[in-house]
Design brief:
single chain; 460 residues; alpha+beta; Uridine Diphospho-n-acetylenolpyruvylglucosamine Reductase, domain 2; Uridine Diphospho-n-acetylenolpyruvylglucosamine Reductase, domain 3; Alpha-Beta Plaits; 4 domains; 7-stranded antiparallel β-sheet; 5-stranded antiparallel β-sheet; 16 helices; globular; binds flavin-adenine dinucleotide
Length: 460
């Protein structure tokens, strides 16, 4: 894209939308993924309306210019990274909560609304928006929809896609499509909403989202259990859930993650443990019995210590500790490659014990935390980027973790998406018919391949 092109784009849009200052572009060129090079964009457009988005896409389609939709760029797969000559299309300024309807228990929002802001706004009306990615304080609903983001509450309530009723989407040619519904049920036609959810900006740009809400749940009770072996923690997860319990949170942290968190906030966790589970129950008067059942399973599988908290403040502190894991890992001062495998829960034990093997084989540190109740783990390969040999081994360990996840009947990504980082691995997960169908959908919706090209689908 040339300077003239940027001038043409500027002419199409109201003032103050198009930026091409190199520093501004550089600051918007990357998400948070490691090992994902970013290109040099030609312009950044800060859209403020559906019309802006439509005008940009129509123009880009006519001129075959790649467009990279961006929310808060908190993604972990390189899917929001700039491509050479691309337009970065930021939705952050489209940040209005259009409506909260307590009777129908739905909210309508623009894509740039921050997840935590929506959750807080509906809570004021006694309602609950459950999807709670660890990035909820920074990530946008548009980004959450486009990655089908999960989080800690998902073990009970489901992921972002389970709450999306309908969308407004601008297609590659600039036309505006409304999908889905506002009603509790609706099966009219193909489920175009589901097609766009998790598409990582490759099929259209989301400009409005209608989400389902729930009544606020009861104040949760919290427990933590510490285990001498990670296998015991995994067995506790499987046993507790197989007994029919639906906790609102069931999270895992390994010893290194607990130690890293303790460096930031000393919560007095016992030393010498291999793993920890954090569980919450939000079923009111029945919560103590549910946590007692958790304690029973954990003790039977070998927990060294189980602590049930009777204070909401202490429970929140423990949740904060879990949310600090990302920051704590970063403070280790190493480069991090974050995996996102999700396996059937009965194979969780093989997953977590397999990590020790991978760590030893590739001689890199592998830490692990994750949404154990969903079987969705985030093994993190920590390595010294200045050492080429260690960097190569880190990439091999990252790949070995995905291979292990697939061999256990799981998926390469439970919530972070494929993006740039795992494209080739998508080719190993899908069968030939699935790949063919995916490419056909992409061609049908974006024949000129302008929407986030070279992301998600392998090849090309
Ligand atoms: C500390 C931390 C914790 C995290 N915890 C979690 C977690 O618990 N669960 C989880 O799922 N993820 C987690 N993530 C990853 C990330 O926050 C999520 O993927 C999030 O949904 C990305 O939102 P975003 O607004 O930052 O989107 P971006 O990173 O800007 O974009 C993500 C993808 O969506 C596309 N996109 C963005 N907006 C639109 C739009 N309006 N229309 C079309 N496409 C669009 C982009 O092109 C890109 O493909 C975490 C990240 C961090 C840094």
């Amino acid at each position: 894209m040339t300077t003239t092109d940027v001038a043409a784009l500027r002419e199409l849009l109201p003032e103050g939308r198009v930026f091409d200052d190199p520093d501004v572009l550089a600051a918007h060129s990357r998400d948070r993924a490691t090992f994902c090079p970013s290109g040099t964009p030609a312009a950044l457009v800060r859209a403020r309306s559906t019309e802006d988005v439509s005008a940009v896409l129509r123009w880009a389609n006519d001129n075959r210019v790649p467009v990279v939709p961006q929310g808060a760029r908190s993604g972990l797969s390189g899917a929001a990274n700039a491509l050479d000559g691309s337009v970065l299309l930021s939705l952050e300024k489209m940040d209005a909560i259009v409506e909260i309807d307590p009777d129908e228990q739905v909210a309508v929002v623009q894509p740039g609304v921050i997840n935590g802001d929506l959750a807080a706004a509906v809570a004021e009306k006694g309602l609950f928006y459950p999807p709670d990615p660890g990035s909820r304080g920074i990530s946008t609903i548009g980004g959450n929809v486009s990655t089908n983001a999960g989080g800690m509450c998902c073990v009970k309530y489901g992921v972002t896609g389970d709450f999306v009723r309908g969308l407004e989407v601008v297609l590659a040619d600039g036309s505006v499509m409304r999908t889905g519904r506002r009603t509790a049920k609706g099966v009219a036609g193909y489920d175009l909403t589901r097609l766009v959810v998790g598409a990582e900006g490759t099929l259209g740009v989301v400009t409005e989202v209608t989400v389902a809400l729930r009544p606020a749940s009861a104040q949760p009770l919290t427990a933590v259990a510490f285990f001498p072996e990670v296998a015991q923690a995994a067995r506790t997860v499987t046993g507790f859930l197989a007994a029919g319990h639906r906790p609102s949170v069931l999270e895992f942290m390994d010893a290194s993650s607990v130690a890293a968190v303790q460096q930031i906030a000393d919560l007095g966790f016992p030393e010498g443990m291999a793993g920890m589970l954090l569980v919450q129950s939000d079923i009111g008067e029945a919560a103590p019995a549910q946590l007692a059942a958790f304690e029973e399973v954990a003790s039977a599988t070998g927990a060294a210590e189980v602590v049930v908290s009777d204070s909401a403040a202490e429970g929140e502190l423990l949740m904060q500790a879990r949310r600090l894991v990302g920051d704590a890992h970063e403070k280790l001062g190493k480069a991090l490659l974050i995996d996102d495998v999700c396996v059937p829960r009965r194979n969780l034990e093989e997953m977590v014990t397999g990590l020790n093997r991978i760590e030893a084989e590739h001689r890199v540190q592998v830490l692990c935390a994750g949404h154990a109740g969903d079987g969705n783990m985030h093994p993190v390969v920590a390595f010294d980027e200045s050492d080429p040999d260690e960097t190569a081994r880190a990439r091999q360990a990252f790949d070995a973790i995905m291979a292990l996840g697939l061999s256990l009947g799981g998926t390469i990504t439970g919530e972070h998406g494929v993006g740039q980082l795992k494209r080739e691995w998508l080719g190993r997960e899908l069968d030939q018919a699935g790949l063919r169908t995916s490419h056909a959908i992409k061609r049908a919706l974006d024949p000129n391949d302008i929407l986030n090209p070279t992301r998600v689908l392998p090849g090309g």
